[in-house]
Amino acid sequence: MFTALLIEQLLNGLQLGVMLFLMAAGLTLIFGVMGLINLAHGSLYMIGAFACATVAAATGSFWIGLIASLAAAAGVGAIIEVAVIRRLYDRDHLDQVLATFALILILSEGARWLFGSFPLYLDIPPLLQGAVPLPGGGQYQLYRLAIIGVGIAVAIGLYLLISRTRLGMRIRAGESDREMIGALGVDIGTLYTVVFALGAALAGLAGALVGALQSVQVGMGEPVLILAFVVIVIGGIGSIKGALVGAVIVGVVDTMGRFLLPSLLALTMPASQATTIGAALASMLIYVVMALILAFRPSGLFSAQS
Amino acid sequence: MTRETTINLLLALLLLGAPILAASLGEPFYVTLATRIVVLALAAVGLNMALGLGGLLSFGHAAFFGLGGYVAGILATHAFNAEPLFAGIPATTSMPLIWVVAVAVAGLIALPIGAISLRTSGVYFIMITLAFAQMIYYFAISWPAYGGEDGLSLSMRNAFPGVNTAKPLPYFLICYAALMAALLLFRVVEGSRFGSALQAARQNGTRLAAVGIAPFNIRLVAFAVSAMITGFAGALYADLNRFVGPSMLSWHMSGELIVLIILGGKGRLFGPVAGAMIFVFFEYVLGGITERWQFFLGLILLGIVLFARGGLLGLLSGKPRHV
Amino acid sequence: EPVKIGVITTLSGGGAGLGIDMRDAFTLAIKQSGNKDVELVIEDDAQKPELAVQIAEKMIQGDKVDLMTGIIWSNLAMAVVPNTVAQDVIYLSPNAGPSALAGANCNANYFNVAYQNDNFHEAMGQYANKDYKNAFILAPNYPAGKDALTGFKRYYKGALAGEIYTQVGQTDYAAEIAQIRASGADTVYFFLPGGMGIAFMKQYAQSGVNIPVMGPGFSFSQDVLPAIGDAALGVKNSATWSKDLDNEANKKFVEAFKAEYKRLPSIYAAQSWDTANLILAALSKASVKDKDAFRAALKAADFQSVRGKFVFNNNNHPIQNIYVREVVKEADGVLTNKIIATAFEDHKDAYAEKCSM
Amino acid sequence: MSLLELKGLETFYGASQALFGVTLDVREGEVVALMGRNGMGKTTTINSILGLVRPRSGAISFAGKTISGLRPHRIARLGLGLVPEGRRCFPNLTVMENLVATARGNEWTFEKVTALFPRLGERRDQYANTLSGGEQQMLAIGRALMTNPSLLILDEATEGLAPVIRQDIWSAIRTLKAAGQSILVVDKTLSELLPVADRCFVLEKGATVFEGAPLALTPELQDRYLGV
Amino acid sequence: MSEPVLEIRDLRKSFGALKATDGVSLELHPGQIHALIGPNGAGKSTLIHQIAGSLRADSGTIRFLGQDIGGLDMAARARLGLARSFQISSLAQEFSALRNVMLAVQARHGSSFHFFRQVSNDKELTEPAMAMLERVDLAARAHVPAAELSHGERRQLEIAIALALSPKVFLFDEPMAGMGPEGSKRLTSFLDGLRHEAPMLLVEHDMDAVFALADRISVLVYGRIIASGTVDEIRSDPDVRRAYLGEAA
Ligand SMILES: Nc1ncnc2c1ncn2[C@@H]1O[C@H](COP(=O)(O)OP(=O)(O)OP(=O)(O)O)[C@@H](O)[C@H]1O
Ligand SMILES: Nc1ncnc2c1ncn2[C@@H]1O[C@H](COP(=O)(O)OP(=O)(O)OP(=O)(O)O)[C@@H](O)[C@H]1O
Ligand SMILES: [Mg+2]
Ligand SMILES: [Mg+2]
């Protein structure tokens, strides 16, 4: 009985991890590859969810909503890059922090202006409702499995894009020396607009997919943002593989911590105390893990350069 | 006198004169608002030491701000309820004593956090400092003894010998004096041998090591001193609001401190002061005009980053910094 | 000279929906009363305690308000209320009733027109005794969450299949739902405010676990029901108010709110409406400048509450009925609540005894 | 006809002027040497040609087209290949990736470059930040060749290279020259540079002070302008 | 012969499969300029890094003034008196040339944990620093930020910083690189004078300079020293000619 639950929880952790990866994927692209600290990534995620919810409500189709989320986030991303980010590449990280912090304020409040203050409705599409049986008697939700699938597909796609294509090489080259790559004849400006829009679209996709499981509301991107940063830093900046591994570590540690810590503590103290202290420790756990990993591997698990 | 010095002097006078004027016109609220500016600026001066001079982008300084605040809150609560702290040590409501404890606690906690975090650099440093702050934040939220998420209310301001701290203006003057002292310290340290080494550590740590100064030690001391100043500000903030809560420890707070510095001008003496002045001013003025104030605040901040390189002071004093 | 009322509430950021309902009902009530002598000073706290403190300071020192109200969240109330009442300004809570302000630290200047935080949970605990023997309970790991589960357990007599404190701000509940499924519980009681509750309900419904769920009214209030969708159908929840509550004042309120704002009122709107009417009633009996007389007038609570009977206890917290509602779908497809039972008649909170007033 | 032509170029860094009227031209198929003491503006001239700094006045034309004011990538695509001072290889790319990332045209291929510099072939999967200084210089030249430029510009062509390698590079430059490649080259080693060059330009304090054949650069002139 | 100031025994360092330093032994004696030459990628800079402490050796010993310094970090070795220059200039870019040198003077003077006394009017720092700049002919550029110096000027600044440390050993990694003919000539005679201040390990590709300066030359190829001797011995060594010098000698 307990083993079955343990296995299910491990799966839950894995799935949470992949979900986190989906959120982190766009961020890795922009942050790891373009070297830009984009605090507004969570807002792009929110935009995706809002676009999907609004369009799905208007058309009755989740899938059209999903396309809308990609388009909306990519569009907003491209506008942001051209209007703001483009001017900040040759500045230090700090100016980027301030500018994207300002963008959070603008996008959040703007979204509230457009969509009102109340959470929106978004549900999983009929096609993906229901569960599939697991070996050993359990069952797993189809939609969550689909998210795992999308996450892995995104991971592979991004990995290939960055490490195998000339586009990927140019992006990385631009990160280390924008001036030089321009002097060698590459239009890095346009390239970065495209990459930023792609990263934004991935954020939007994550927002739409996860929005069906959560509350679609203003500010939904912020907790995600911090977690996504944790994920890519644990994995090593600039490494898609690292982001995936980091996400799974965070997902599993968080889930298992929430699940096991209270019961473990209950062995040594009264149950009521164990539940609250266990919960407190569980909420600190991923940060403890992150600090430990960075203390021993100061540039993450799979840093792009040795 | 350079243009920047003149501007600094004007800012200092404005910050002192406006509240005194407001108090004499019977508008105590503006004194409180000015106190908020001063305390936030003080916290940011602390961060500016690590960030502006040392290039250590700590995204976890809210931890020290909050720790300072909680020290003040906890000491005051215990003293108010006449409960000893632990092992019979009595609590206190004396501000100077509380400050000493707050500064010491912030410094002592900053040492291990710094020692671990400084093994990393760049974005990893940003994130590991954030991680430590988040640990403390979640601890504060879920630890019931001192109010958890609800925070801790102080029933009255702590005492300063010979001053009626309950009145806005005297309390403002205390905070103002603290800010000026911190600015003086910043200026002196910046020009000292330690400051030289610290700035060199920011520009090129390998170069510093190659002349025989270990960057790690320099950075660690700077990080601790920086945390102590920010912790001091936290204690003042607790008394200003007569309240401490986990929001003082949240990453938003860390982010806000960073924003103040960049707004005003990173590494500049009065950068945090100018930053706090405009940030609080806009927050207050816009908040009074429209409930969409965050939208417009965002636009203004964006305008400043894009068009005022080197922050407000960079814009006003018109030339880049060189040493 | 007009009466100045300071309203500090959340009008921006993620939690703005509740504050906006609060403000809208309040201003509507004042408008409908035709009382031209009331002046409102409304400010946004952005759900930040420090900002709320700052605004309170400004309202008291700068605007010199006579009364204050508006705060939605317990932690903001804890930051603002003690200092406000200590400066002899009367504060009326339209929502949030932290236990710390109800017991030994009760104050003559503090009136809670909403509820004591434990009340809704106590009601569900009481109601659960009817059908269930083995409940699984969960709440976020912070003071309000602990109060909630304590409140539930105060009246619930059955066994506990599990008790979990989740992370504040958590958005994925797969792990908790798996534990619920494995626990053998016959019911689930949860307190997860705001987006957390929406996420939990959606995921719970999608998970296929069909143990009946109960919650406090906040999680099924009119502002969040559309976002949860059909997943909420049939869920039992406790509240001091419901749109279908059968009394004149309530009918008038629901009509007026719908007509003015083209949406259904939430419980926050109802409580705020009551707060405004309580103030208006007291104003008609005494001057705010005469603090003692005005406090007495408030305490008399001589107004038509949309909740029906409404009396203040010794600790200035309400004595009121608490109902059990069920989420239903109306003919036009709109999700809303219907009262199905009364959990408590004239319920008092557990802390009043410790209050020396 | 001139492939590249600069007239009266003036360039500033902020308020301080670095170029005070540089005039220079490179003809089709010619190797031109650009010389001058430290800090006289050689690098600044090259950066101005590529649009990396914007000249304030003066005209630059390439293949009959005015290029001043164009963005660097547009200029480069017209057929300018740069080997910059300090090499500036992309540290986070491997040798192979450095060569391929910006490659254009098909005259020069990875194979041809590694035939010219066998060491690059041996190090093909190593990150550029771990290469030795000389290896990086070879990589920078290879990278520029892979863009198949009609004009190759080398700033400090052989700095930091071992004598044998330096000879390799000069012979590579001779090979390129024989194949009709136009080259603008800056180098400190006059004894190796002058025999390759068809013409020389000398800069002093940001202005052209000499133009002519290598032989016209007499020992007296060398001493005056270059301190030899 | 006198005791060696710096003595390296069987030093090894690998990067993956690549043996960058493959059993190098070397001695540096007082008053000596010991030149280290070898093809690009032979491991010269790697060796300098290991001596200076910015890379840790896999095995082998480094003795400096009789003390084993293998366990010390870069800063500690610098304090003992090892001054190095970088193959690619490494400076505090925002500091003026003068302040770059002052930093070195300050490091030599002991603790950097002085928080109050201002460096700008601290004659103990400014005067020696200015003197060093004068020695390398950079005094006129003393107040220009390092970022705005030309390539050659930065190389000169690197030397001034090393001088300011008044070290017991100089480790110079290609100091001539980027210097024009005139600069190289001047620097050559300058370094020639330095041998009396402290012995020098000199990595350099400029053979004119090496042959003019070196008391002893070691030739490094693929991480091994294939020949070591006086200028004439090395010049005429056929292996060295083939592996390194070409026709240049
Ligand atoms: N980024 C910069 N900012 C300000 N001044 C600069 C900058 N780069 C170069 N200079 C100045 O411009 C002048 C010309 O420098 P440039 O680098 O073009 O000389 P160079 O001839 O290439 O010298 P070297 O042989 O040393 O490389 C010098 O006085 C230098 O100090
Ligand atoms: N971190 C590293 N990882 C892998 N290989 C490295 C690393 N650092 C150096 N190498 C390799 O070690 C070898 C020796 O490099 P080193 O920089 O010491 O050469 P060098 O003799 O100084 O050459 P040059 O004269 O060109 O500067 C080179 O082949 C280089 O590619
Ligand atoms: Mg140059
Ligand atoms: Mg080398």
Say which CATH homologous superfamily of the largest domain in chain E is assigned.
Answer: P-loop containing nucleotide triphosphate hydrolases
What CATH calls the topology of the largest domain in chain E is Rossmann fold
Strand fraction of chain A = under 5%
Look at the helices and sheets of chain A and give the structural class. Answer: mainly alpha
How many domains, in number, for the residues of chain A?
A: 1
Would you kindly provide a brief summary of this structure?
The complex is a heteropentamer of chains A (306), B (323), C (357), D (228) and E (249). Chain A has 306 residues and is mainly alpha-helical. Chain A is 75% helix and 2% strand.
Give an overview in words.
Chain E: One of its GO terms (molecular function) is ATP binding. The complex is a heteropentamer of chains A (306), B (323), C (357), D (228) and E (249). With 306 residues, chain A is mainly alpha-helical. Chain A has helices spanning 2-34, 41-59, 62-83, 93-115, 142-164, 166-176, 178-183, 188-211, 221-235, 240-266, 271-296; strands spanning 131-133, 139-141. Chain A has a two-stranded antiparallel sheet. By secondary structure, chain C is an alpha/beta fold. Chain C contains eleven helices and 13 strands. In chain C, a hairpin with a 5-residue loop joins β11 (311-312) and β12 (318-329). The longest helix of chain C is centred in the C-terminal third of the chain and has 19 residues, at 267-285. At the A-C interface, α1, α4, α10 and α11 of A face α1, β7, α6, α7 and α8 of C. One adenosine-5'-triphosphate sits between chains E (15, 18, 20, 38, 40-46, 87) and D (130-135, 160).
Features:
heteropentamer, C: alpha/beta, eight-stranded mixed beta sheet, 13 strands, globular, E: 249 residues, alpha/beta, Rossmann fold, 2 domains, six-stranded mixed beta sheet, four-stranded antiparallel beta sheet, binds adenosine-5'-triphosphate, binds magnesium ion
Please write out the topology.
The complex is a heteropentamer of chains A (306), B (323), C (357), D (228) and E (249).
Chain B: H1 3-24, H2 28-53, H3 61-80, H4 95-117, H5 123-142, E1 152-153, H6 168-191, H7 193-203, H8 205-210, H9 215-241, E2 243-244, H10 251-264, H11 271-289, H12 293-307, H13 311-317
Helix pairs in contact in B: 1-2, 1-6, 2-6, 2-9, 2-10, 2-11, 3-4, 3-5, 3-9, 4-9, 6-7, 7-9, 10-11, 10-13, 11-12
Chain C: E1 3-9, H1 16-33, E2 38-44, H2 49-63, E3 67-69, H3 74-86, E4 90-93, E5 110-112, H4 119-131, E6 134-140, H5 143-155, E7 159-166, H6 174-183, E8 187-190, H7 195-207, E9 213-216, H8 225-228, E10 236-239, H9 248-261, H10 267-285, H11 291-300, E11 311-312, E12 318-329, E13 335-347
Parallel strand pairs in C: 1-2, 1-3, 3-4, 4-5, 6-7, 6-8, 8-9, 9-10
Antiparallel strand pairs in C: 10-12, 11-12, 12-13
Helix pairs in contact in C: 1-10, 2-3, 4-5, 10-11
Chain E: E1 6-15, E2 18-28, E3 33-37, H1 44-52, E4 59-64, E5 67-68, H2 74-80, E6 82-84, H3 97-108, H4 123-135, H5 151-164, E7 169-173, H6 181-194, E8 200-203, H7 207-213, E9 216-221, E10 224-229, H8 231-236, H9 238-245
Helix pairs in contact in E: 3-4, 3-5, 4-5
Keywords (chain D): Amino-acid transport, ATP-binding, Nucleotide-binding, Plasmid, Transport
Organism (chain D): Ensifer adhaerens
GO molecular function (chain D): ATP binding
